[in-house]
Amino acid sequence: MIARSTRLPISFLIGGVLALLGMVLACQPTSAATFPPPRLTEDGVEFERLGQATFRWMRVVNVYDAALHIGAGHDTSKPLSGAPLRLAIHYRRDFTAAEIAKGGDALLQRNVPTDTLEALRARLDRLNRAYRDVKSGDTYVLAYLPGKGTVLRLNGTDLVTIEGEDFANAYFRIWLGEDPISVSLRDQLLGR
Q1: pTM confidence score
Q2: Based on the structure, what is the number of domains in the chain?
Q3: Is 112 part of any domain?
Q4: Interval 140-171: pLDDT, tens
Q5: Which CATH number fits the domain that encloses residue 79?
Q6: What's the CA gap between 3 and 18, in Å, rounded?
Q7: Of 89, 82, 115, nearest in space to 104 by CA
Q8: Which domain holds residue 75?
Q9: H or E stretch at 47
């Protein structure tokens, strides 16, 4: 009987170490430069940052960096109470518009009552149709402006405005609801 070697070829080991090193380097924290400043003025509203965070899939893969701003002077403990809100999402991975819309719909179902979703369906469909594919480095901004609605921007270009405080209250629950995309992301965005 011939004994089999259980040793792995050195090229396999080196390749594995290099792949692991590449993954670690790709997942390093983003510099503060990708986050919007703590205070900013946009659409005639002065915003102050509540928090910022990096969304990590499976706690390993960095998906996007996010920063949440609220209208200056508003109650920061109740961000979904009609205050101006601004969520900036800076992507670190490529996504299709369909993936973004599908993921958003699934999270809305977890955080918003069915009858409310049915009442919002036409507006949700309008927002989903406005989404575009994103590449690493692109930034979406969702800004709720009382009296105007929720503005969706990609890299500074307006794509659509969806009217209604009820819409903003529901849609921001993807990140800020009871069962959000990530509890730790939610808590960091809210400055907890």
Answers
A1: 0.81
A2: 1
A3: yes
A4: 999 999 999 999 999 999 999 999 999 999 99
A5: 3.50.70.10
A6: 30
A7: 89
A8: 31-189
A9: strand 45-57
